[in-house]
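Fold it.
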Amino acid sequence: MNVSLPQLNLVVAWLWILLGFATGMVLGMFFHGENWLGGYASFQRRMYRLAHISFFGLGAVNLLFWLTVKDAASLTTGLRVAAIAFVVGAVTMPVCSVLMAQFPKAHLIFSIPVLSLILAGSLTVLAVVRHETTANELFGATNVVGVVSTEEPSGSRPLVAPITIQTNHAIPFL
């Protein structure tokens, strides 16, 4: 399977949402046991819950990244690094959560997903903010539809007119 970087983020997004459903089903089969994994407030059980919810959260983050860059003609180096770092963060967060549930002294392992996600988020924010324009314009959308609203002379109802903006911008700074 040959998948491009933004497409990989989309595949990870939906796969992680599916894994969130599956892990929820497995955890849900046992959560009624009062002392399961040491009880509701135990460290081990909290880490398993973190692994479960990270599938949904990081699936959504990868989906949002894909939505941000999907119309780009090509990704800059910074956005390619961000794409990979979002995937690395998504893969390593549940793995690190389960490992830490079993080996609590391994808490420094969380630096892998956290630093990866901070890097990815920072590069994405930098790409959007530096250009000082909308994400669609920034990533080369060719038909951005907006709305212009003005008041009718009588002041009773606003007039709404659709507009189309043609843009083809690149991100030269990353």
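The chain has one domain: 5-133.
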